[in-house]
From TrEMBL:
Residues 63-174, 183-288 form the DUF306 domain. This is META domain-containing protein. InterPro entries: DUF306_Meta_HslJ (IPR005184), HslJ-like_sf (IPR038670), Hsp_HslJ-like (IPR053147).
Length: 297
């Protein structure tokens, strides 16, 4: 029975991990573009040359950004306005832009060119709904229509995007977490300061684009959700955790694993690309993960 469970658990994890690598899955964006250039003295993503700008577009600007500040006003609440930059197949320096301003959805196109320039290509289309409490709508609209320059900083695992007007004044600030180092299959190697042997099969697959976690507690199958707090640096939280209900030889260790998962607040890379550290709200390392090299099928 133990051998059967081991085969079943590995098959589940392998299937989940292979989904991350399959063509069309949302975790990896297919591209030949080299990595973005980051100035190590200023932590700013370089966009001086066309090559640097294309890399910044494909590797950093692309994707969803949570709006953190509009016109000097901090954005708060759980449901925050956001922007999504999407590339076009025609022009590498032109991007589609989708916006949720807290009330309406807008879409348009922007030109992103070297030396940190960004400008609307056309007028933004809006759903034109009326919302009585849309306190960020006007500021976001002003920032979009007056955008002329941008700057991106890399701070720890987060990118900060500053949208500026022609006077180089910041009109809107956005944040995007770069937790791509966590995508994939992992085994728990240290749990609350105690080493966990590989044959314990305490494993999980982290799927950040889908905000899901799947795995095994060492006995039971685990599924849950992931939440990334846009206001918190290096944020990573697990919620809605559910497991199967088989009786296990070491229920205490399984229970500890589930409790620690609920205590996780942040994540950072470990000593190399094959390790990651998950911390609680006091900054204490609660779990160390070691990457699993699953067999290819």
């Amino acid at each position: 029975m133990a051998h059967y469970n081991s085969i079943r658990n590995n098959a589940i994890l392998t299937g989940a991990a292979l989904c991350l690598l399959a063509q069309g899955c949302s975790i990896f964006k297919k591209t030949e573009t080299p990595a973005a250039t980051i100035n190590r003295q200023t932590d700013v993503v370089e966009t001086k040359t066309p090559e640097q700008t294309v890399a910044a577009i494909d590797r950093v600007l692309y994707g969803e950004w949570t709006i953190a500040n509009v016109g000097g006003m901090e954005v708060t609440g759980e449901e925050r306005p956001y922007l999504i930059f999407d590339t076009t197949a025609v022009n590498p320096f032109e991007m589609k832009l989708y916006v949720n301003d807290g009330c309406n959805y807008l879409n348009g196109r922007v030109a992103v060119t070297p030396k940190g320039d960004i400008r609307p290509v056309n007028d933004f289309l809006s759903t034109m709904r009326y919302c009585a409490d849309a306190k960020y709508e006007l500021g976001i609209g002003t920032a979009l229509n007056s955008m002329a320059h941008f700057k991106i900083e890399k701070i720890s695992n987060d990118y900060i995007l500053y949208l500026k007007n022609a006077s180089d004044s910041t009109t809107m600030t956005m944040r995007k977490s770069d937790l791509t180092f966590l995508n994939g299959a992992w085994r728990v190697s240290v749990l609350d300061g105690k080493n966990i042997p590989a044959d314990a099969e305490m494993q999980m697959v982290i799927d950040l684009p889908e905000l899901k976690v799947h795995g095994n507690t060492g006995c039971n199958i685990l599924n849950g959700s992931i939440f990334v707090d846009p206001a918190k640096q290096n944020s990573l939280q697990f919620s809605n955790l559910a497991t199967t209900r088989m009786a296990c030889p070491d229920m205490e260790r399984e229970q500890k694993f589930l409790v620690v998962l609920e205590q996780v607040e942040t994540a950072i890379p470990g000593k190399d690309k094959d390790t990651a550290l998950l911390k609680d709200d006091h900054g204490q390392v609660m779990m160390q993960l070691t990457r699993l090299n699953l067999p290819k099928q």
